[in-house]
Amino acid sequence: MSMDPDEISVKFADLENLGAAIAKARGQLNTARTNQATYTLNTENQNWDDESFRAKFARHQQNQQLGEEIEEILNATERALEATKHNLMGAVQRSMSGF
What we know:
By secondary structure, the chain is mainly α. The chain has one domain (17-94). It has helices spanning 5-45, 51-96. Helix 1 (5-45) runs antiparallel to helix 2.
């Protein structure tokens, strides 16, 4: 079974686009984490210790946990992407060996 070179190019391009989207999401996650940490630190530096501060701190902890979960998903997606690239390369090589 031969593979159309144009279809293969599209598949690799799609995988590259997905990789770029993962990298962008990782960058946005890091920015959000930095912004949240800075906001929380600034709040702590003002020596706030009231109900409002405790609520903000609880939200920060929830956001931190959510960020870790998102990072795990991004890592798993990245590993799946690499495996898919590897499998596609193998399929291309196998199809080329028939020539």
